[in-house]
Structures are given as structure tokens and as C-alpha cells.
Amino acid sequence: MRTAIAVLALAAPLLADVAYREACTYESLVKQDPFVRKTYFGKEKVRVEETEGRTTTIYRLDRGVLWILSPKMPTYFEAPLKAAAAASAAEVAMQKKNLEVAKAKLLKEIEDLKEKLKKEKNAKLKPPIETEIKKREDRLGNIEVALTVGKPVAWAEPTEEKAQILGHPTVKWNVYVNGFLSQQAWVSDEFKGVEEYRKHVDAMYKKYDVVNDESAMQEALLKETKGMPLKRRVLAERGGAPGEDGASPMDVWLVSEIVELAFNPVAPSLFELPPGAKKR
Question: With left for phi above 0 and alpha for psi between -120 and 50, is residue 179 left, alpha or beta?
């Protein structure tokens, strides 16, 4: 089942309205057409429009509902936000299975690294091995927590990769959920609006206690980074059993990059149902 990507986890009461346009593409074995996504933020409201005949979704945090507008008919579907974001029983079972796989993999890696450390005679080469052991032990601890509490646990780690996006320097972060790579985010903290963005995201989580993979990833980025993601590569659909690196060649990834960003007032009408729209 394809995971809803995106924007609910970014929404929150804003000091200034925000709007941005993203160029989106899928990475998968089956070719899919690229599309454009436009996102508008108001106070406790979010609107997401997708081109190429896709739907428009309005998140009304103030009312606790979301509306999905039909692309060709004046109708809409309404659902409670928490119910829409909650994981199904099948997804919870799959999460537990993935946790057990990740735990076994890390235990084996730690065992191998400790054996390597024991055999290493060059003192200068021991610290890097110890660092790798510590990193995996930290991940193992997060997985143990996830197994205990029965909800997704995510953490973010910086990489050496850097890129210029929208004219701003970014650092690439890897985000892991339950031990598996689930998102890559190119984050910048060097432009106006970053602090406001972070305050708004934090305010959203304080108001709504929704726990799923997406919210776990967003919270990890908020905790570990100091900026705003300008590009993301998110696991949209797991295609099969994880491979040795936690990924499957059948996985589907959604890559989205912000190509326009503005901090300007957004018309209130964008967050309302269109006139004459009928509930399905």
C-alpha cells in the first residue's frame, strides 16, 4: 500500500503564510510520469495540489479533518486526520517484522566489528572501528525502544554530501525508520524563514498526537537538524522484503525538490471547499 507522502507533518500555525512548488518524480522499475506539487500553508490549514490529473487535498487542522477533492467532479471525500494517518494492523505487523530483521542484522554487524577490533593490531585503526560499533549500538537501542513501545522510531544522520538548491547550501541527511533507510533530505539553515518553519512544525506536533512513519521522520529531522528540507527522497512504497542494505530493488521512492518558495499571505479561500462541492 502506497504511503501518503508529505505535507501533513509540516503543517502548523504560521507567523506568516508559506507557499512552495515542488518538482516531483518517482524512482521505480515501472516508469511513472513526473508531476508538480504546490503546497500552501495558512494558520492550522494546508492545501496540496498535484498536477497531471491528481487530487487536491486540504488539511484542516483547526477542524481535525482532511478533504480530498475529486480532480474532475465537484465532489470531495472527508476523513478525520488521526484516522487517516494511523497505521493499519497489517502495517503494524509489517513494522514489527522489519524491526526484527533490522535487529538481527545489527547484532551480526556488531559481532563482526567486535571480532575485527579484537584482531586489529594497529592502534590507529581501532578508533574508527569503535565508532562504527557505537553507531550500530545506538541504532540497536532505538530498535529496542520501537519494539517495546510498538510505534515507529526514527533518527537522522548527516552525510558528507552537499548541494546547492534554490541558491542555498544544503547538507544531505539520511533518515532511518525502525532501522531502515526511509528518507534522504537535503537541509538548509541559511535562508530567511527557517526559524519560523521550525516553530510551526513544532507547534503542529504539540497539537496533534499522530504517530506514523512520516511523523516519526519529520520529528527526527526537527530534532537533529537546524534547517528546512529543500529536497527529499522518501520511500513511498516498499516493494518486497528488505535486502542486505535495508532496501529492495522493488521499492518506490518519491523525489521532490522545491523550485519556488515564498513567505507571503495565502488567500483564505484556498483552504475552503469549492462552491457546490458535494460530499461522497
Answer: left
